[in-house]
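pipeline/complex-builder :: batch 7 item 3
reading input block
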Amino acid sequence: MTTAEKTSRVQQWTNLAQQLRVDSIRATTAAGSGHPTSSMSAADLMSVLMLSHFHYDFDDPKNPNNDHFILSKGHASPLLYSMYKAAGAITDEELLTLRKFGSRLAGHPTPEIPWVDVATGSLGQGLPVGVGIAAVGKYLDKLPYKVWVLLGDSESAEGSNWEAFHLASHYKLNNLIAIIDCNRLGQRGETELGWNTEAYAERGRAFGWNAIVIDGHNYEEIDNAYRQAAETADRPTLIVAKTMKGKGVSFLENKEGWHGKALDAEQEEKAIAELNPQVRSMVFPVQKPANDKPAPEAAKQPIKLPRYELNSKEATRKAYGDALLALGAANPDVVAMDGEVSNSTYANEFAKAYPDRFFEQYIAEQQMVAFAVGTQVRGKIPFASTFAAFMSRAYDFIRMAAISRANIRLSGSHAGVSIGEDGPSQMALEDLAMMRAVFGSTVLYPSDANQAAQLVAQMADHGGIMYIRTTREKTPVIYSPDDTFSIGGSRVVYQSDKDQATVVAAGITLHEAIQAYKELQEEGITIRVIDAYSVKPIDDETLLAAAQEAGGKIITVEDHWPEGGLGEAVLEAFSQADAPMPQVVKLAVQSMPSSGKPAELIEEAGISAHDIVQAVKVLVK
Amino acid sequence: MTTAEKTSRVQQWTNLAQQLRVDSIRATTAAGSGHPTSSMSAADLMSVLMLSHFHYDFDDPKNPNNDHFILSKGHASPLLYSMYKAAGAITDEELLTLRKFGSRLAGHPTPEIPWVDVATGSLGQGLPVGVGIAAVGKYLDKLPYKVWVLLGDSESAEGSNWEAFHLASHYKLNNLIAIIDCNRLGQRGETELGWNTEAYAERGRAFGWNAIVIDGHNYEEIDNAYRQAAETADRPTLIVAKTMKGKGVSFLENKEGWHGKALDAEQEEKAIAELNPQVRSMVFPVQKPANDKPAPEAAKQPIKLPRYELNSKEATRKAYGDALLALGAANPDVVAMDGEVSNSTYANEFAKAYPDRFFEQYIAEQQMVAFAVGTQVRGKIPFASTFAAFMSRAYDFIRMAAISRANIRLSGSHAGVSIGEDGPSQMALEDLAMMRAVFGSTVLYPSDANQAAQLVAQMADHGGIMYIRTTREKTPVIYSPDDTFSIGGSRVVYQSDKDQATVVAAGITLHEAIQAYKELQEEGITIRVIDAYSVKPIDDETLLAAAQEAGGKIITVEDHWPEGGLGEAVLEAFSQADAPMPQVVKLAVQSMPSSGKPAELIEEAGISAHDIVQAVKVLVK
């Protein structure tokens, strides 16, 4: 490259960077809020990326060869949106709708914008998601795209990032590049490590990454670092860039007290004058991907679900594993991951049969959910499993996945006190509440292996956050493999025109309800029994009919805390209906369990057949 | 030390270690389940700790000078219980009740046992809690106790551990010693790093720790490492011990397929024969603390709560900060922590006034909750704050804190769509559901600054997991500073004998309900308005009276998803009562919000005064 070419290149980088800074200021001033200074620190990093390293077709965001860019420091959205404007993807007019009602340019990016893969704004999530996207590129689609993630320095404190550092080096994701915008200042003062960029790099290296420390305002250093990253063949690269918050404006640069503050009109004018941009609304075309290789086509087969013999015994967690295996055979887009308990969740069946499509996450549930989100960005159908109790570890990731409009499937095994001896730390007693309170979620809790297998198969075709709760213990197979079950449905197990009350159960407690039915029958009391395997959406119609036909008396029984689970889902169904409310009695776990045999703990929790019988008698007395 | 002394010391270590191994096997065989091999790998580490370094008075577990030991790898509970037996704290008979119904020796340790500080079993939690306990010793109580944490190697994948590594080095916790029992084998095969002990050590060093690699079966190396750790003055120490799972028994040692499996009677006999213990049920007294310094006494003052003028405007998050400041003045045991947003949560008022009792956690919410749990182990009264949305990051820690019977206070600010421009990633819309579904929790959601301040003060005196949800926006002060509010109570804002329906609201929506009341009055419709500021426990009595007196028609309105929040809490109250169910209509956030002005988003969500008016009209038509 001649000196003139070099100069011209630096001039281009400068032009774009200054335009990004000016636009970040303009957009936030127009909004009256937002994060201009956190945008300005990374403007040089983004300018060099956009002009010289990033390959993306803005007209075709689904192009499988597109690079991916994740703004993990989502509060720097003005920078991202300014990049979209510079790339010609949005107009200046739209840029100035930032943070306004009805605009897709929200305070933090979401996939309402077609070029945004996932929502960010809860810190420490961009890199774990990037790991999933990069793994698809390297191992499944075998496409040469790169995944660039821009992180803030503050967010390196989030443990989830270190789960990502761990897993990315394990999977040798050389197509993953993390850039830390080390601007020293967090929301309320200096970060713990300040400008100790070498400390960040050492941490990266200790986790098996290539790490490069640069001056984040030196274009040549940035350009070289990106080139080095691209040339690294065996590991991901961390670029630690020393930057200044508010860079380019004297009264903002490296000053405390400017986090998340927009400039007023006068300050805006002064700042823009200082930035003295050569260009103001120039379009800087982004290179399209050089490669036009298609993503591999998935050749689908009809699914052959496992079949369990009526009246045999099987655990629904085993049915999950068997059905996942069947899905794996039927659809090459199905991928699975597990948090180092695949021999308990039975995801190991899939892992053995389709090792290329199984990604061990080790004991890192946040990373596991993020990985699932990353794979569905690339069109895969992810199933992620661990003990239901440990899904709580990833709740923020599940929440954000819903904001990302992600389609992921989660399987939580070992639910409730019925796991027995392992004790309360391993018992999910809040997972139904937690998963119901996710936007657009589906919550399933099968009682039988044939039912579980059918529901798992349907999860593959369904959108949103799908959750299935499975049971550790083997339970009787009460349905034929030819029975059909569907999301949003329920099954009336016992029904007559003499029903005096209805018991609504799901999963393990359905078997207690069946036992209670038999005991009550002997005493001349007839009840209706409903298997509410679809906890969300719940089958309102069947519940309403039961209330009407069976004396307006309902008992719900669940292996879960009383709050937010099956009982409240049933109450919720009636509150939304234009019908009289029945009397509802909830049986749920009311005291802290310890260890013991499953039957002992079910009895102690007050959710046994015996307790149901008692409750029915009181209700119908 | 003479050679004879040395030999005798090694013999003692060996005797104890072999007894611990034998007892770990015996207890799990008696239980028919459990983790003998994960116990055996760490037996030598624990033997040297117990005999030569640990200072603890088993007769006085509250002795402030006691060292603390946390078994982060909680599944190795047989080892812990065998240590208790060896120390003479429990009998052999009790040891053999492991995992049985009614025994305090649960599958994973809980504080039902007086020598257990916190429940473990959800991996990656012991070290973050240890950080909190160590910080109290170093900075608050200024006592020379040490905090020893035994981790499994698998659990190093949990990001929460790296939050702890980060924070412990920041606070220079030289009284904290983490020991990784690097036995190479996880639940379903080899760990990612296997026996690469140096890799663990490098990670520790990169995070600012002193790190020592040893052979975990070499007594002298173990002893030296503990001594070095004790002598380190400026940083915590990580000891990475290369060990063998199942050490000491040929058919278990370093073998796959033995995780979480008890031996049968025949295998037990063979194993014990191989271990050939010199002693079987010997008591090995543990040294009591040398120091008998008392913990500092907290000199309490009466609290002077902030007072807000009626009809002024203030945000409840500000009232939280003001009340926390007042608590700080009143009670030196009150400590506070925040996730790097203290200028938003207003915890910064406390931080400025009482810097010694404020612990910045940076952006690491799991560590923050664990830190709170650690401080209450030492009798402190912790308040931890961040945005309510980010409490979801720590849900597993909150769940485990409940199992630990911990008394912690959490404040989640910026709840709901009413935060406005920042968008959905920053809006808590599931926190009420999540926090209600925690055993023994209290969930508060004040609508006014005077009310908020009173509730914050009461949180200090209350046990269990306490959660307060606060609002970003300033809202009208509708109560006098002399009004009283209490946990479990509610406030009837409007009431008459002509009430046609009742609106139950809390927090920001109460102000919408008040507006709706006024509009409906003008149209000749009178409603009752209830401020349900105590969402859990909810004031059943007032709700039941309202249903009875106001036409059996209730509308709930909440800035939260429809599931698990205020509406379901109200439904739950009726389901538990022996009274007819009223008709309940729930107004809640039904679609994914974006950015906008608070009023625009409240309107869009369908929870505005306008929506309440409409719902009342339909209901009373």
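note: Residues 3-31 of chain B form the longest helix (29 residues).
queue -> next item
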